[in-house]
């Protein structure tokens, strides 16, 4: 079935190449979204099965595929509005990149083979490049060049990590390099090679997960890409990076190097938080602010993984909720740009007066992102802190708490300025947005808030199963 | 024979680190592709026919023919043929490169593996460091692209060092990697060349916080 999905998907994408008008392109893209929904339904109903040898519909893949499906629908809808006045050539290239990205991310989520994950990850670079270059300015050129260059270097390093894994235990490469074989081979593998392999894979995929050390290109990509694309890159693609690192970590965690890997993740998470805390104070652009917020959330998720046990459960929950909140915020900043004509923080203000529904989205999004109850993000962050206490990691607790204080200040001061402070320049009040276009953002934020009070049993069960095997 | 080719490969790395003309870079990249084919041909004795076709297309068709042609086109289109005047002088480069060779040997000694030849491992690491050095110390986009290709070659040499157990899938991956990276990097370098004639990375620093 998955092969059929890829073939039909590729046919639709190729048809867009031949399209000469925007209506046809939108229809083809809509068809692709229907295909994505249908395929997700198929995966849900065939949970646990393996398809075409290299793809398994496990709990982890299923959770993220579900989120990808929702984000695909909302991003498609937002893109239709956002790109209304784009020339047909740009319009087609945008959808080529967007659909190509959905296809390759689906491959990353479901592949049960470390090499195949790596191949699909490489394919995401190509699709993202098309999205970043959309506006064709000197800024987009710079961001695209940096993205391709650093991602390709990162991917090469991740490949080196895979080679180290096959050096650690020869049986791994000979048996086909699946994650299952990796877990078996790693038990008897050379610890030094396993450690090196993990470091290389972590560094390589950090570009996609937007964590330290290769987080910078993600910031630039989010900054220059159209708002709906930024929303997608900052959530679905970041989740792909998270999942790829998590799968390797999960396979290696039962071995003698498991404890060491945890420490590496803790250090990486802390550095990511530090970077976010520092840069969120000096950032001058709202899209960069949101991008640094992604670095922060993914940093906390990395710390959760590093702590192990229920920290892993919390990390997955955190990443799920972050996907809904961050995408809503990016969509809303896209709408704010339509009214304010800028993303520059010092040029904005009075948004509550200009577009109250949008201002409410930003306020609710802010509350959820900083993890204050009734934010859904409060629950996973609390679990992570509790795990830090339980494992006597006091120093982690203190450092994370301090850095989060800085982040809350940086984020709140800038968004509150946009919403409430008086604007010091002329703003075209004619630009109106239909509040119905903001409805999807309220729904996604509402879900993230609801999760603070009650978590559906099926989701709990899925996350628990996805994070098993870990200590 | 393999050892001779690997030593030649190491020499090409030293030369590429001190070279100042882009055409020399391209010639050396093509030469490295040829050497990699030679090494893989002699080393992978039991390789399957399909795998051999992949390796052939990767080393000869891509690394020796297509990539150099693309790089020459970039040179011609951008009319840029020399490294930046502020780049690390050759004298310092050769000291740095020698130092890296020693470090590579020490690391490979420390990480010695029963199934991997130490010289193989040392040269792979040396190639990796040389690629990173080119990326870090040079200020022109073209030099950085060459640095990336040296890094890709290092990874390829590394995969050869491990032996012929590598499945077909991984070869497909390498081919895809080269295809995407070179085509995209090549086309973007040309686009940047249209916008910024000097092809200097300093011109690409508009994105700041």
Task: Please supply descriptive tags for the structure shown above.
A: 471 residues, mainly alpha, two-stranded antiparallel ribbon, 20 helices, B: 209 residues, 7 helices
Quaternary structure state of the chains depicted: heterodimer
**What is the first-to-last residue Cα distance of chain A?**
35 Å
The overall pLDDT average of chain B reads 81
- How many domains make up the 3D coordinates of chain B? 1
Helix tally of chain A? 20
- Number of strand segments of chain A: 2
Largest sheet of chain A: 2 strands, antiparallel
Give the C-alpha Rg of chain A.
21 Å
Query: What fraction of residues of chain A sit in β-strands?
Result: under 5%
Main-sheet strand order of chain A equals: 1-2
Question: Which two chains touch over the largest interface?
Answer: A-B, 48 and 39 residues
Largest sheet of chain B: none
- What is the terminal-to-terminal distance of chain B? 53 Å
Radius of gyration of chain B: 17 Å
Number of strands of chain B: 0
Structural class of chain A: mainly alpha
Shape label of chain A: globular
Run of helices and strands of chain A: HHEEHHHHHHHHHHHHHHHHHH
Summary of the model, kept short:
By secondary structure, chain A is an all-alpha fold.
Question: How would you describe this structure to a colleague?
Answer:
The complex is a heterodimer of chains A (471) and B (209). Chain A has 471 residues and is mainly α. Chain A has a domain at 281-471. Helices cover 78% and strands 1% of the residues of chain A. In chain A, helix 2 runs parallel beside helix 4 (88-110). The two termini of chain A are 35 Å apart. The relative contact order of chain A is 0.09. The model of chain A has no long low-confidence stretch (mean pLDDT 92). Chain B is built from seven helices and no strands. Chain A binds chain B through residues 113, 115-116, 118-119, 122-123, 125-126, 129, 138-139, 141-146, 148-149, 152-153, 155-156, 159-160, 162-163, 166-167, 170, 173-174, 176-177, 190, 192-193, 196, 220, 223-224, 279, 282-285, 288, and chain B through 111, 113, 115-116, 128, 135, 141, 144, 148, 151-152, 155, 158-159, 162, 165-167, 169-170, 172-174, 176-177, 180-181, 184-185, 188-189, 191-192, 195, 204-207, 209.
